[in-house]
Each structure stands twice: as C-alpha cells, then as structure tokens.
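Reminder: ligand-aware prediction takes two inputs, not one.
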Amino acid sequence: MPDIIQLLPDNIANQIAAGEVIQRPASAVKELLENAVDAGADDIKLIVNDAGKALIQVIDNGRGMSETDARMAFERHATSKIRNIEDLFKIRTMGFRGEALASIAAVGQVELKSKRAEDETGIFIEIENSQVIKQEPVAVSTGTSIAMKNLFFNVPARRNFLKSNAAELRHIVDEFIRVAMSFPDIFFSFTSNGQQVFHLEKGSMKQRIVQILGNSYAAKLVAVQEQTDYMNIYGFVGKPETAKKTRGDQYFFVNNRFIKSAYLNHAVMNAFNEMIAKDSFPMYTLFIDLDPAQLDINVHPTKQEIKFEDEKIVYAFVQSAIKHALAQFSISPTLDFELDASIQSLDAVSKPFTDDNKSSAISSSLYNTFTKKNQSHFVDNKSELRHWKDFYEPREHVPVDRWPLVDGEATGIRENHINNQQRPTTENLFQLHNSYIAVQTERGYYLVHQQNAHERILYERFALAIEGKPMATQQSLFPATIELTTADAVLLKDLLPDINHLGYQLEPFGNNTFVIQGTPADVNQGNEKTAIEKMLEQYKHFSNDLKFSKREKLLRTLSLQQSVKAGISLTEKEMKNLINDLFNCSMPSSTANGKPTYLEFKKEELDKLFGR
Ligand code: ADP
Ligand code: MG
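Here is what comes back for the chain with adenosine-5'-diphosphate:
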C-alpha cells in the first residue's frame, strides 16, 4: 500500500484558514475598518457594491505602508502589532493575529494602494489567489486603500452560501456601527451602491450615538462614568422610558472592541431593575477600559467574546456604575450616593491583582454589598422610584403551573383531535377581566386566553397566506411616511416583499424613508407608524433566535402584533368568532411560541372538588 498523507497546496490551505476569518462580506468589512483604525487614521471611508459581494473598499488616511510591508502584510501571521508572546497581554490594537489580509487575499481579488508620509510615491499591488500579480509605484496621498473584489470568486460553494443582498448589507451595517460607535473622533462614511448610508462627522461620544441610533435618543441619554485604578467605565444608557421590546440598541465595548456578553448585559439589566418593564430592554453603549493583562481576547477568532481575569468584579462594577448614573438622573435626592469611595476601597480595585487577594476580595463583605440586593444604593420598594412601574403596562403573564388545574392537562386536549365532546358550544360564553373567555363544552368548560387564542388564529392565517395570494390591504387615506434608522431601513427592505404580501403596502422612498400606502385590515388607521415600528422591534426580538427562518420570524411577529390584546372588551359576536376560528385551527391548543391558548376544566373533576 502506498502512503496516503499529502500536504495541502498553499492556496487550498489558505482558503480553508480564511474561512474562519472571512465568513461573509461583513467579516472583511470589520477587518479592513479595524486595520484603518489601527493605522491611526482619523478619516475612514467604506464603499461597498452589491452588499460587498462585488466590492468592499476601505480608504483611510492612516500611516500607510512601505513597499516591503505592503507585500508582507498579505502573508499569513504577518503583523506589526505583536512580536512575542508577552505582547499578547498588552494588546491595545484591534487586530493582532496577522490573518485578516492573508484571508482576504485568499478569497477575493485585492487591490492595495498605500503611501507613508515620508515616502515620495506610493505602492500599488494587485493580488489574486494569494499571488501578487501586479506591483507598481503609484501617486497617492498618505494612507491606505484596500479594495476586495468578487468575494469568494474562487470558492463558488461559499459564494452560494451568502444570503440576499439586503441581509448581507444588514450585517455590514452592524459591523460598521460597531466600529464607528467606539471612535467618535474618527470621521466615518459608508457608501453602498453609490448611495451614502452614513456620514459621521467627528464629535463627542454622545453625538456619535445619536447620529447612529437616531434623534429619538437625543435628550434621553444618561452619562455613565466611573474611574478606578483597576478599570474605567464610560458611555451612555437610555433613560428608562426609551427601553424597547428588543435588545437591538445595546453595545458593550471592552478596550474599544465590541463584545457580546450575556453576563455583562445581565449586570446592566439588573441595574435597571424596577425602572423598566420586565420584558423590555434599555439602550446602552458602554465602554470598559482595563489593563489588557486582565483580559483574554484570544478565545474566539472573530473576537466578539472575551474572558475577564475576574468576571465578578467587572459585573459588580458595571452594575454599580449604572445604578449610580440612574440614581443621579432620577428625581429622588435620597437615591444619591457616593460610589467611588466604596468601589475604590475594594481590595481588588486598589491593589495589584494576585490570586490571594482575589479570593479574599470576593469573600469580603464589601464585595458582597456590591453583588447583593439591598446594598446601599439598591432602590427599595418604598422609594419613589417604585412609581416608575406604574408608567408601564402590567405583566399579564401568569405562569401556567399556578392555575388550579383539574387534571394537570395544562394545555388541554392535543392537536387535531377536537371531537364533539370537546368542541365548545358558542351559545354559552362570557368574558372575564376583559382577557379570558369562559366557554362551555359538553364535558366541562374552557378558559380561553383571548390574546393567545387570536395569536394562534392569525399565525395559521398568515402561514397560509404567505404561500398563497396576497392578503387584503386597506388603503391609507393619507399615506404617511416613516423615517427609520439606517439599520432598521435595511431590515425593513429585506422584509418588504413578505410584509407587503401579508397586508401592508409599504414603498421605499429613498433615504431610509418609506411611504405607508396601506395596512392590514386590523391595523387602526392613524396608528400605521407605530404599528411598523413595533413590528420591527418585535421582529428584532425574535432575531436572536437563529433557529427560525426569516419568514417564520415574520409570521410570529405579525401574529403577535396584530392580535387582540388582553384587557380589551369583546362583543359576543367577536367572542364567538374567536372561539370558532380557534377550534378550526390545526393546532388550537397553543400559540406558535408555545403559550397555552386555553385551559380545560372538566365537569366531573369540578364535581369531585365540590364533594359531589
Ligand atoms: P493584524 O491587523 O492582525 O496585524 P492584518 O492581516 O489585518 O493583521 O494586517 C497585517 C498588517 O498589515 C498589520 O499588522 C499592519 O501592519 C498592516 N496593515 C494592514 N492594514 C493597514 C492599513 N490600513 N494601514 C496601514 N497598515 C496596515
Ligand atoms: Mg487586522
């Protein structure tokens, strides 16, 4: 038998390695923008065509590259940012792995132009399949321009994996925002197919946030700012009333690097505690700076996750800082308290970090006061802040297991098996608390949750309609226009065909604006704008759930949004229709999201309970 192991040819090895770094156009955007930031630029332009599939170009006025460096830059593991393993623990730049340009050159056709201030002429390099195919001097101004054309031209399988242009563009917008947000003293612009999407003048952090997230936050930001020797936190949180039903506008940056951290998010949510409704999400843009030695940013190739040397301290610090900020903004003077002194006196904060003092810090009672409720700045129930709650809708959700169930059949009978005994008679029904419909069956009665039931009905109706003929639209008498943030506009464009099929009639009107020509019959005229905003919020809420397709998310969103809410009084006719429609559904017993639509109470069990 011959030996069978072979080394992969370079270009294939490169392409495989590139797959980790460049998964889609947005990954290349992120890497190129970060390189421009690392190069000290204060003017960075992003240009994409066809959602980056045809062209991604980043032009910066940073320090540029020498001829040799420009060629070296495209080698794997070529970086100017670290030299030895110790440097890994001092990283202040966005990049350090030396993989990005090599990966980009493996999966796209690259053109680089670069010049340093001290050089007379610049250099032009063209690369294809990781090979330099052209190199010549060029007259350019100081800085670097890197263009990547025809992403995955040489890996058709990957190219086929790319999503629609609208979807890919949305990823690009996300990455652009994440970089632009953390560098307000850099000018950024973003042009897509010749149209300017963002133009972000240099300014303050607050201005940058408002430029990106929209004017609605302008007067509604609370500054967060705490400094200690161990770490600093600064940034803004939205006032409680700006909380949304989606976690869209939440950004955490550690040493200017965007990160996702459920743990730190929890710390913020905890700080907002009673000020916002349980199912809503506050806006925040928070920057944590700490000694890179306290971090491991090496855990994930796309570097969105990091490990803190001591997570608990960071958690307590974030939570306290937000509480402090909110207390200062709040109306109640009794909530004011001095935070710095107490945090400062934490051993973990004031002394150099060793394992010993780490464990003693964590067990100290002072540390515990930061992590437990009822600490000095815990907003207690008797305080004035309690009334915040009154501004928000009460939670209607009662856990199913609290219901006095008769035989444990929490969700009633199973799907598709509604027999005559089980089918309710709509002769005998009434509404309770404007939320429940009690309706008699041959063997007992059902308690139907009107909103959950309607959600189920709409969901099945939409699911049928989306495959079939478009749903009825009511024309708007006075077509309103709605202006969205760029990210939302890109999202809406992506959903437009399906949304319009399901009863809306929305038309793009340039510049993130849409005209509302019509809405589904159930949406009240005059409320069109709110309906659309809420729909987008709701959709984004589901977006975190990757297991659903775009359509599934939309079906769930619209059925949730257009369902009759608990608290609305229904006429007898409306109740009858609702009950009939529900029991004609193919899965009447729960909503698409798994909440029960009705509970069954059997007469014989009731009799038993009454000793009969
Ligand atoms: P890394 O950023 O991890 O060092 P990259 O592959 O992204 O790796 O870049 C390789 C090197 O090329 C960088 O270390 C830097 O020296 C140089 N470089 C890349 N982009 C630029 C740019 N826009 N301006 C100046 N130098 C750059
Ligand atoms: Mg880089």
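The radius of gyration is 29 Å. The chain has three domains: 10-203, 206-392, 405-601. We will return to this case in the review session.
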